[in-house]
TrEMBL record:
Gene Ontology cellular component terms for the protein in this record: cell outer membrane; efflux pump complex
Protein family membership: Belongs to the outer membrane factor (OMF) (TC 1.B.17) family.
Name the UniProt record assigns to this protein: TolC family protein
Pfam families, per database record: OEP
Annotated keywords: Cell outer membrane, Membrane, Signal, Transmembrane, Transmembrane beta strand, Transport
Cellular localization per UniProt: Cell outer membrane
UniProt GO MF annotations: efflux transmembrane transporter activity; porin activity
Signal peptide feature range: 1-17
Residue ranges that the Swiss-Prot or TrEMBL entry lists as coiled coil: none
Taxonomic lineage of the native organism: Bacteria, Pseudomonadati, Bacteroidota, Bacteroidia, Marinilabiliales
Length: 420
């Protein structure tokens, strides 16, 4: 019985009110229930607001200004003409005016900024997808644990039924005083051991279903029927991991940043105007309040920045190279995981080949022991040991089958196949 208990405590991974629950449903529910997934909407809204702000660069900028000044000296004509009064300007001056500046061509900076915001959004969304995809492994682990527990309970129920039927015959022999009472007591003790094992399995099932309930946000009870459709594994399938999209998005973001740096070095063309009222106006020799305006076109160009932009672009290029190295390392690690998982699948398939033979042999031995027990040629302990050996063989077969299914599912997860 000790070996049996040890085996029962070795479920697939860790020891799950939907009536029927499939693994794919759990994947979908877990994704919908993941709190961080809502970050995608937040990032999208932030990007939309930033892009709206960027577009205001194409709109005119209007500022209102006003000032009053007193100055120690003013422009004057330093000659005197007979019979001519030379105009002079007051030392206290006032003006209120509006200035307008309209971008005609900003060197492509606004468009580059918009493209950069889209690239940042894609990078952030890709990061969220990486986090969400990691949920699949937790969901799969809990699902197969619950599935393994169910299969073990079925096997133990079969063993209990066999022992109960044998107990009836033994009790009949005890009543007829042809069999010792100790034989019946040993069978009753073994049935109690099975009940204890079932209690442990019930606890493991509750733990697994509660984990699934937390991950999926659905009420999954211990009575829920777990469904898993075995699918063939495509060992030659290309990787489609969300991390690959993240690396690509990060490098694209750096490219857009480099493009923006280039655009900031372009000349900018703009129009401007000013309209106001003050003393003096544009005629500096008129000492009266007057209205005025002026319009024009301007050009600005930072011709020389001491190679600052080039150095910043070199840093962006180095960061892109660093991401490439990270991507290559990630791909190498994934390939190693696939090799290990492939070997695990091959090992379990070989074990499955011998499991059925082992079960048949143990079943035949247990039947022979049952006959010997009735004829009192072996002890009850010998019979129980043979029944346990048969049960262990059946448990191994069921566990190996579930472990094989889980190994194949994990292989597909490593490939990135089960993405929503």
């Amino acid at each position: 019985m000790r070996k049996l208990i040890i085996l029962l405590l070795l479920p697939v991974q860790i020891a799950f009110a939907q009536n029927e629950v499939s693994l794919n449903d759990c994947y979908s529910w877990a994704r919908e229930n993941y709190p961080n997934l809502k970050q995608a909407e937040i990032w999208a809204e932030i990007t939309s607001l930033k892009k709206e702000n960027n577009q205001t660069n194409h709109l005119p900028a209007v500022t209102l200004n006003g000032q009053a000044t007193y100055q120690s000296d003013v422009t004057h004509i330093g000659i005197s003409v007979p019979n001519v009064s030379m105009p002079s300007v007051a030392k206290d001056q006032y003006k209120a005016y509006a200035e307008l500046k309209q971008s005609i061509w900003d060197g492509g900076v606004t468009q580059a900024n918009t493209e950069l915001e889209d690239a940042i959004l894609l990078s952030n969304l890709s990061q969220v997808e990486v986090e969400v995809y990691k949920l699949n492994e937790q969901v799969s682990q809990a699902f197969f644990t619950a599935l393994a527990v169910d299969k073990q309970r079925e096997v133990l129920a079969q063993q209990k039924k066999v022992l109960q039927e044998k107990l009836k015959k033994i009790e009949s022999g005890v009543r007829n005083q042809v069999i010792e009472k100790s034989a019946a007591l040993e069978l009753e003790a073994e049935i109690l051991n099975l009940d204890q094992s079932n209690l442990q399995l019930d606890a493991a099932k509750r733990t697994a279903t509660r984990m699934l309930s937390v991950l999926t946000g659905k009420t999954i009870s211990g009575d829920s029927k777990l469904l898993f459709n075995t699918l063939p594994v495509d060992f030659n399938r290309e990787l489609t991991r969300p991390e690959q999209e993240l690396f690509s998005a990060q490098k694209n973001q750096l490219e857009k940043q480099s493009d923006l740096l280039t655009k900031t070095r372009n000349p900018k063309l703009f129009g401007f105007g000013q309209a106001g009222y003050g003393r003096p106006g544009l005629n500096m020799l008129n000492d009266k309040f007057d209205s005025y305006y002026m319009v024009g076109v301007g050009l600005s160009w930072n011709v020389f920045d001491w190679k600052k932009t080039n150095r910043e672009k070199q840093m962006l290029h180095l960061q892109s190279d660093r991401i490439t190295r990270q991507e290559e390392t990630f791909t190498q690690n994934i390939q190693l995981l696939l090799v290990q998982q492939n070997e695990q699948i091959a090992k379990l398939e070989k074990l499955m080949e011998t499991d059925s033979k082992m079960v048949a042999l143990r079943a035949e031995i247990a039947q022979t022991s049952a006959s010997k027990l009735e004829n009192q040629t072996i002890t009850t302990s010998d019979y129980i040991q043979d029944v346990q050996a048969e049960t262990i063989a059946k448990l191994n077969r069921e566990l190996h089958q579930i472990q094989l299914n889980e190994a194949k599912e994990k292989y597909r997860l490593i490939q990135g196949e089960n993405r929503k």
